[in-house]
């Protein structure tokens, strides 16, 4: 809802049994905020949870791409679409 705040979690996992995964997380703009963007090292078998906040200032759908780079040779660059929908508050009678 416009003017309110919602937070969701994005999980990044290292499914390797032996290699450390290094991930660099970009930033988002406008109504989205990533808490603690930057670089991370994820141990084998562990996960990282990123908190993403959405605070719309107007009604409508907003989408942005979050770009991440990693030490994984199979996925050196990843893009995740982040989508939020701001709705108008309902009129009270």
Q: Top keywords for this entry?
A:
single chain, 93 residues, mainly beta, Immunoglobulin-like, 4-stranded antiparallel beta sheet, 3-stranded antiparallel beta sheet, elongated
Order of helices and strands: EEEEEEE
Number of strands: 7
| Percent helix | under 10%
Class inferred from helices and paired strands: mainly beta
* Spatial order of the strands forming the largest sheet: 4-2-6-7
Number of domains: 1
The dominant shape is elongated
Which parts are unreliable, with pLDDT below 50 for 5 consecutive residues or more?
A: none
CATH fold-type name = Immunoglobulin-like
Can you say what the CATH homologous superfamily is?
Immunoglobulins
Beta-strand residue fraction: over 45%
Report the end-to-end length measured between terminal Cα atoms: 18 Å
Just name the CATH architecture: Sandwich
Number of helices: 0
């Amino acid at each position: 809802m416009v003017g309110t705040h919602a937070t969701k979690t994005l999980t990044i996992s290292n499914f390797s049994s032996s290699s450390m995964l290094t991930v660099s997380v970009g930033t988002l703009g406008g109504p989205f905020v990533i808490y603690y963007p930057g670089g991370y090292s994820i141990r084998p078998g562990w996960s990282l949870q990123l908190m993403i906040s959405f605070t719309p200032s107007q009604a409508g759908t907003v989408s942005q791409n979050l770009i991440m780079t990693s030490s994984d040779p199979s996925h050196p660059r990843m893009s995740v679409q982040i989508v939020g929908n701001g709705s108008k508050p309902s009129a009270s009678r």
